[in-house]
């Protein structure tokens, strides 16, 4: 009965639309058509519209399709509808974002399934999820067309790809699952900072071995580049974890400064071999330089939107689901990674046959050890900070009780 009513309603709508279109289309109405014929057809359409109005009134009394279809399995719970900012704890509130928040305390599977839900973290998740898929597809295409062997010359490129996928996966995980609880919020964003540190050092390794000039490597910066990049990478993770756990909303300016100073120093150091090459090598002689210039431009734009709540500051509540600054930051950072990967493919292809003439094989393999050491130190830092936050939350909960 319900399916018949749905079908009847759809048939009436189609017939009415066709008759109305025929009456209003000058190509289908003959000039010599008698006026009373048009009136008859109009009356027929009106009668069908009256039938449609009755069907619409009956529509509300029909069962929902969710009632007709079998219920979803118990292991696939449905995420709760999003709520306004007043319905979530202060920790989860973002400046000028007034709606689209996922309720706290749902089943973990609800947050996994919220990947397909419309909320204020949706684009944050999908931008980096699609970027990760794009990186994998591009690497697969490169391997298929150029061939690839895991050896000492290719090791920095492999570590770079691993670092890019690490930061993208950590970001997706953090934005997808952080709404579960206050502890989950801290723990997953600490993991996000681990991904940032790993990506910074992966970029440093690739830039040093594939993008640097001999004059830069012989400079003071070049001699201390890799140890300094590792220290600044870990410091970026540690300072972001500290700032996240130390300050409460509304966040003071010093929190942003605490985050930006170490990460900015790390970036300017990591990009220095590329910047020196852009300044000294004619761009027409090297097709990779334009891609390196693009990756710098995209990163600067990403930093702008990360450091300030634009455009939601000027349109509170209008950029909740789509268009707020952190989403734009993700987009530009993804574009930066794509351009960087393309440039490194060109640089690697140009130098892979002569790389062992410039660097010792032992130096290339030691890079993997330093990469793993940085990743381990950053992860341990995040774990320690998560433990401290857990104790603090337990203490504050006991105090409230």
TrEMBL record:
Q: What does the UniProt entry say about where the protein is found?
A: Membrane
Q: Which residues cross the membrane?
A: 123-142, 154-177, 189-210, 222-245, 288-307, 328-345, 365-385
What organism is this sequence from? Umbra pygmaea
How does the record classify its membrane topology? Multi-pass membrane protein
For this entry, the protein name equals Membrane progestin receptor beta
* Keyword entries, A-Z: Membrane, Metal-binding, Transmembrane, Transmembrane helix, Zinc
One GO cellular component assignment for this chain's record is: membrane
User: Which superkingdom, per the lineage?
Assistant: Eukaryota
Q: Record's family?
A: Belongs to the ADIPOR family.
- The UniProt annotation places Zn(2+) binding at 175, 326, 330
- For the keyword Lipid metabolism, the answer is no
- Give any Pfam family that matches: HlyIII
